């Protein structure tokens, strides 16, 4: 009896794998309800070449505290990425601007330099890895590492970024610490920062407490 169960399971798995291999892609049907496994596929008959092109990686607004502009291509606005485990982003940073310390849990990040000079780096409990990048350079940030980028040159920086995730999350240290409603004295005590400085940063990042 056990052998029959094993043979049945093997047959079922084989059928599932073979069935999955038939689907070369799964362009998301954004009009259909999303489930825990993602969006369902559009009928292949309704898929066109236009589904595999995205025109939205244009310069984003840099009118913010970080002088940083980003635009994303993710499954929510580029349905062809559905099930492929990848996301793209364009980054524009004005002179003197930066992307502050942040992390993408569960996603590797690949930075592709196009214009300007960018210093990128990530930190571990024992080491810091940092490099000044020029056009044509690549820099990889392993998943979950706290990292940053700075415009360390003259003029504007433009770069493209790829993530090994359809929906990479982001946790920005400054916003987590100072864009919240935690009491300022608690933030000061747990970060060893001066209370007045904490209040100043909370005002900058629209926190309270």
Automatic annotation (TrEMBL):
Molecular functions (GO terms): manganese ion binding
Keyword Lipoprotein among UniProt keywords: no
Boundaries of every Cupin type-1 domain copy: 55-199
Positions with a binding annotation for Mn(2+): 102, 104, 109, 147
Secretion signal, residue range per the UniProt entry: 1-20
Keywords, comma-separated and alphabetical: Apoplast, Disulfide bond, Glycoprotein, Manganese, Metal-binding, Receptor, Secreted, Signal
Principal subcellular localization: secreted
S-S bonds: 26-41
GO annotation, cellular component aspect: apoplast
Keyword hit for Disulfide bond: yes
Sequence positions that bind oxalate: 104, 109
Compartment(s): Secreted, Extracellular space, Apoplast
CDD domains assigned to the protein according to its UniProt record, in alphabetical order: cupin_OxOx (cd02241)
Entry similarity comment: Belongs to the germin family.
Name of the protein in its database record: Germin-like protein
Species lineage: Eukaryota, Viridiplantae, Streptophyta, Embryophyta, Tracheophyta
């Amino acid at each position: 009896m056990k052998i029959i169960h094993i043979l049945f399971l093997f047959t079922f798995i084989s059928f599932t794998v073979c069935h999955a291999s038939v689907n070369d892609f799964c362009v998301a049907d954004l009009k259909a309800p999303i489930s825990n496994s993602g969006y369902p596929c559009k009928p292949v008959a309704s898929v066109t070449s236009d589904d595999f092109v995205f025109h939205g990686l244009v310069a984003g607004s840099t009118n913010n505290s970080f002088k940083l502009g980003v635009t994303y291509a993710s499954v929510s606005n580029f349905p062809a990425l559905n099930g492929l485990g990848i996301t793209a982003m364009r980054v524009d940073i004005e002179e003197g601007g930066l992307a502050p310390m942040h992390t993408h849990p569960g996603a590797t990040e690949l930075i592709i330099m196009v214009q300007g000079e960018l210093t990128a780096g990530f930190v571990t409990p024992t080491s810091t890895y940092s490099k000044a990048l020029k056009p044509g350079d690549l820099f990889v940030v392993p998943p979950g590492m706290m990292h940053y980028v700075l415009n360390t040159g003259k003029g504007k920086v433009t770069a493209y970024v790829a993530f090994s995730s359809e929906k990479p999350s982001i946790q920005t240290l400054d916003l987590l610490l100072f864009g919240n409603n935690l009491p300022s004295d608690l933030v000061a005590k747990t970060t060893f920062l001066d209370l007045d400085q904490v209040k100043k940063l909370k005002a900058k990042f629209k926190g309270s407490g």
